[in-house]
Amino acid sequence: MDVETTREESLFAEALLIADRVAREAFLDQACAGDAGLRARISKLLAAHADSDQFFGECIANLGVDAGNVSELADPMDASEATGEKVGSRVGRYRLLRQLGEGGCGEVYLAEQEEPVRRRVALKVIKLGMATKNVIARFEVERQALALMDHPNIAKVLDAGATEQGRPYFVMELVGGVKITTFCDEHQLDARQRLDLFIQVCQAIQHAHQKGVIHRDIKPSNILVSVQDGVAMPKVIDFGIAKATASRLTDETTFTAAGQFVGTPAYMSPEQAELSGLDVDTRSDIYSLGVLLYELLTGRTPFDQKELVSSGLDEMRRKLREVDPQRPSTLLTSLDNADLTATAHFRHIDPPKLIRSLKGDLDWIVMKTLEKDRRRRYETANALSLDIQRYLNNEPVNARPPSKIYRLQKLILRNKAVYASGALVAVTLIAGLVVSTHLFFQEREARFEAERARANEMQLRQEAEAREKVTQATVLLSHGEVAEADALLDPIPIALFSPSTEATSVFRTLGEWNMFQGKWKQAANRYAVLVQVNQVDKEDRTDAATADLLMAAPLLIEAGDLNGYDRIRRMALARLATTANPAAAEQLIKTSLLLPADDSLMKLMPSLAQVTAASIEFFDPKVNGESYIAAWRAFALALLEYRRGHLVEAQDWLRKCTSFPDQSPSCVASVHLLRSMILTQLGQIEAAGDELKQGREMVDARFRQKLDYGDNKTGKLQGWIMTPIFLSEAKKLYETVPASGAKGAK
Fold it and tell me: pTM above 0.70?
């Protein structure tokens, strides 16, 4: 076979791999430039290939034979040789059940393995007549690339071999699901959920890179998502055009010729589009991951696929190499209302909030992945996933705005002629200044980076030491050595403790112990830490998530740590203000309004009040337990109206509260004290004094006794612990009245 024939077969096989007609024509124009005869012969072969399936289908129909039962026409072996593998036939140990898909050179079947284990798999085999050297090499690349992988988010190769006709095949795990963008839209995943899936994809690509494999065709259709045990699981597939970084994937490694596209234009990196023989490394995959992230966030790719292909090969390459895409948030602002509304709907968010959520960190992260200069992209897929995790954790991200010098460089590149003529005149004057300034900024950035690295290292070391001390305290508590455990953790700053089940158990025990010892300041400190570490499940918005606040908030006030109290009530409201749980809403109102609050906190109260008020209507006052709960919720609403300055409404809710029988004694005492404050404000001084006296007597009597948790009959400690706060405020307010009017409380 001569060289010309070999080239013709190779170009024909490569053209079959390009599904899009316009892209295929552009490829042939470039590959066959200057050889009209070669171009015409390949076009004729492609047309004949497209007509072949229709021709044989019409022949079968004319003979009156079911197309699914070709065995009626010829010997089974002959039919297999003519049409390739058939549904129902066997390939090695596998029985073909049905065809899942078909590309230009390969077919994928759903197959069943019967021994040594019974399971369903995906079997991929080269199509009959397509087993050219180039196609077989591409096929072997994919098989070997997948065989190297061992990652839960990458499809696994289970077996390999050749058919009786000598065509290679390999067997993969059966990957169900749909492409990642379709899955996200069908389930209306918000940005956080989409980013969680994307992080898993990054980890899979990182694994491939560590194995020395560059995917080179990352796009939504090559990432399938299915739900396993209620959890979305993405799988990266199709390593058909993968490339090895450190070694050959096969003995017959193929090389991409200069001037040949490999990949999908909309997801292709600038260096892939260069067609100059520039070595493509793992950072090309980082760019493609950036395009995927852009599409997950906005529903669109940075450059429209159809526009790229229709613009012609040269213009398409120019755009990919030279035109900077819009920021994701900027793209959204350019959409018309209908498109923007639809995009926001698929992300379960309002359009303005969607745009705001992308501005800032997400914009910078995406644009860092899409840098034309690959040296300015993330170095690894892992670095990209870690920066996204920092964003999700409300931590500073490493993606930074380009420096002024970098912006100047980009401007010069876009206006080469103008700046070249000006540079000839000015270069001798500014060269020294530019160099020295550049070195200064580099040195300063390096110094800042070193300082940040040292600070991060110190922070991580201190956090690790804090976790170790928590574990030691757990052991001490298991032996009953509470005082020793308390002393061990006392010197450690609150900020070093991170959420964990172990820390939650330890600090709840230490908070209770200090409180029952009468050590209010130490107890307040332990409960403040408890509120911080008891956030393992940040999606929990039930009353269990607010229970610790009932102890922590008043203890911090009693200990004089008003800044600490304000910090935890703001943290709790930021996390839980949208709760639909009435018990949690009631607890948030009470603990957040033990002291007056500013407008920013009061704006979060209406939804909590609505949930709490709606729940009271369903309680039966004849049932003791329900009556007890309803009274506390009415008190919470009375406290809220008092903090708003609505004294009449506050009195109405207190009357509602006292109308329920079987109230907790701590609730009764709280009602007396709050009513005293209301009456004082209304100028009813004698009645205010009587209420203050009754409330003070109840509080004094309770705290003369030994502290315990109590019950509904005596009043639980969580209710009593708030009463000294109300008593102190009621007394201060009453004492502002002239002495002649303050007789009732003496």
Answer: no
